[in-house]
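Friendly challenge for the regulars: who can give me the structure tokens for this chain first? No prize, just bragging rights.
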Amino acid sequence: MQGSSVNTSRPTLGLLITAAGGAERIREKFVQPAIEAGWSVAIVASPTAATWLDNLGEVRRLEAATGYEVRIQPRMPGESSPHPPIDVYAVVPASANTVAKLALGLADNQLLTTACEVIGGQVVPVVVFPRVNAAHARQPMWDQHLVALRKVGVHLVYGDDVWPLHEPRQAPPGKDLPWPAILQTVNDAYVNRPDPS
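First reply, four minutes later:
Bragging rights claimed.
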């Protein structure tokens, strides 16, 4: 299998978008600010997130903003990656289902395959923002999923200080995701990343 044939002088953020609230605004609220902050952004979307984004015309806009294809499907054997090497990955927004699968190492689509491999490799930093509600957090295994991810070095953007949880469909109208906190965590993860040598 071939590696990437794309080079960039900027650090590259591998943005992994799942089908959770906030995905529909990720270009304006996160991708553009990341680019303005000096990042190159390469995107992989889950199949459902890709459908949402495509129906809104956002796949085309994201590709125009980043200059890279939004990946959904795996590459063919021997096919080069359309993305440059990644310096930090961010799973944003991460659905409760995605968080559980990441903790368990279940890789049943391109996004999860990418994330599970990187988490297992423990070389490239991974940031995860769980876009969940209070009911998700009461699921009996939820805390164990978070512990498992933290144990392998995943940077979680999670807690009442950044994203107070509400009951399902009870969040205040217009409640925005903690985009600045997510981008700051990405920046911090990059600055404090392990030395590859």
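Residues 129 and 157 are 5 Å apart (CA to CA). The two ends are 23 Å apart (CA to CA). Your move, everyone else.
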